[in-house]
Amino acid sequence: MFSNRRRRGAARRVKPGDGHPLPRYRWWQPFSRALFHLRLAGADGRPETWSVDVKVWGDGDDGEVRARLYRDGVHQATSKTPAAFPVTGGTVEVETSGYGLKRCHYVRDDGTVWQLAPDPASAEGRRARLEQNHPAASRAIGAVSVVILVVVLVLGVPQLVEEISNIPPVAENVGTFTAPIHLSATLNIALVVATILASTERALRLRYNWLLDGGLFDGDD
C-alpha cells in the first residue's frame, strides 16, 4: 500500500480524462499492454466497471509510462506511474517496475485491499488462468522464477560490483572488489535473458521484491 506521502504525490499527477473509449485489446499486445478491471456498485447502486490500461514500455510519443483510468469504457483520468486514482468507495493504486506492473490494487476507504482482475485477453489474464486451471504447474513455474533470480543475484551481482569498483573515482575513494566467481560472456548473457524471463513471469502475477526484481538498483524501498 502507498504511504500517505506517496499517495499525495500520486494524486497530484492525475489529469482529467478526455472521454475517449477504451481501446480494444489486440492479440499482439500481451507483453506491451496491461489491462485490469474492477467491478463496483456505484453511488446509485448500479454496477460500474473501472478499468486500468497501461502501456508497460511507455507511451509512443515520449516513452513515459502512464496509467489510464476508464469507467464503463469511457476515459476518466490519466497519470504517470505510480498512480492513485479516486474511484467509488476508495482508490485504485497502480505501480510499475521495469518488467511490467507490480501493483494494481483497489484500496477501500476502510483499508480493505484487493487486486484488480486482469483482462482475460492480456498476458496477465492468461497467467491467472493457468494458475486457476493448473495450480501445481503454476506454483512450479513461480518457484523456478524465484530460483533463477536468486542464482542471478548470487552470481551476477558480485561481478557487477567488481566492474563498478574498477571505475577510477570509485577505486580511488572506496577501493576495489574482486568477485569470487567469474562467468564467461555467454553465461552472463544467459543470466540476463533468464532474469528478464523470470522477472516478467513474476510481473504477470504482480509479484515484486525489491531485491530480486531490480529494485536494488532502481532505488526502490
Number of helical segments with 4 or more residues: 6
Radius of gyration: 20 Å
Strands side by side in the biggest sheet: 1-5-4-3-2-10
Q: What structural class results from the helix and strand content?
A: alpha+beta
β-strand amount: 25-35%
* Straight-line N-to-C gap: 12 Å
**Helix amount, in percent?**
25-40%
Average pLDDT value? Answer: 90
Shape: globular
What about the largest sheet? Answer: 6 strands, antiparallel
Unreliable residue stretches: none
Number of beta-strand segments: 10
Topology, element by element:
Layout: H1 4-13, E1 15-16, E2 33-41, E3 47-55, E4 66-71, E5 74-80, E6 83-87, E7 90-97, E8 100-108, E9 113-115, E10 117-118, H2 123-133, H3 135-165, H4 168-173, H5 185-204, H6 215-218
Antiparallel strand pairs: 1-5, 2-3, 2-10, 3-4, 4-5, 6-7, 7-8, 8-9
Helix pairs in contact: 2-3, 3-5
Can you give a write-up of this model?
The mean pLDDT is 90. This protein has a six-stranded antiparallel beta sheet. A four-stranded antiparallel beta sheet has the order 6-7-8-9. It is an alpha+beta fold and 221 residues long. 37% of the residues lie in helices and 27% in strands.
